[in-house]
Here is the input.
Amino acid sequence: MGGSHLTKGSLKEGVKSPSNLFDAIPAVVRGGRAVISSGDEAIVASVKNAVSSGSVATFYISHKQFEMVVRWYWTNERIARYKLQPVSGEEIARISSEFGIKDGATWYFNRRACDFCGKEYGAFEFIQQGIAEHGKEMVNFILGSKEVSVVNVNLPSFAICPQCKNIILPAAAYHMPVGYSC
Here is the structure.
């Protein structure tokens, strides 16, 4: 989504009681953020507006809202423009074996070759970079949780070649219907 990421994770994993949730809200607001509660259409409209306007935002939304946003964003034309292809069974098996991440059977990625060294950058390298930058716990949270979807809109992101460490442009595009998309 123009440098956006759609991710699915669960806030409930860290929330033990309503009072714990209400304790979290002031912490979010003190951090310069907002907590918004609304119906599906209003939330999806807010995500669409952020995408269209170029605003940088993160939305914690329901799975249903996530699906509505994904259906709107990933049109057949956009999939073709970004040249998304299914991630191979071999690459999914490698991701599962090396990182313990499951459920990659429906992932799509537009593999890129590094302009400097020629190394291919695909879904495996993307997961590897995510773990290096954010930690395995965060990647597992994003890809493994099923209750809350997290939509990061227009965040700058760069594919970094794991071999020569140069930035690969244009940035990789990916779509993981299980909860992560850009």
About this structure: The helical segments are 18-30, 40-53, 63-73, 76-81, 89-99, 123-134, 136-144.
